[in-house]
Amino acid sequence: MRVEVRLTAEELAIVCRPINGEGGWQTLLRRLLARLNSLTGDMSVRTQELDDIERYAYAYGEGGYQERFRAILAAVARVRS
Questions:
Q1: What is the side-by-side order of every strand in the sheet holding 42-46?
Q2: Are 36 and 42 in contact (CB under 8 A)?
Q3: Of 25, 56, 65, 79, which sits with the fewest C-beta atoms within 10 Å of its C-beta?
């Protein structure tokens, strides 16, 4: 299953910042960005990805990438409310 979300302009700016390096969060974010329409902010998120998104958003302290995943979770929360 998928959740169809629409990122706000602010969220879109956060999520679309350049990705440096290779690794778990970079791979997930690149996969999500492949399903993003950067003109409309529409993104398709697979429900099985939500646990990973939440883990990267909150489980590893603070850094640049957590904010990106929190922006996606905010969009998911708007759809689910």
A1: 2-6, 42-46, 36-37
A2: yes
A3: 79
CA proximity to 11, closest of 69, 77, 80, 79: 69
Q: State the Cα–Cα distance between residues 29 and 65, nearest whole angstrom.
A: 9
C-beta separation of 53 from 69 below 8 A = yes
Residue 6 is predicted with a pLDDT of: 98
The owner of tokens 């679309």 is 16
Nearest residue to 3 via CA among 31, 35, 30: 35
Q: Which two tokens stand for residue 71?
A: 């922006």
d(CA 68, CA 57): 8
Distance of CA 27 to the CA centre of its chain: 12
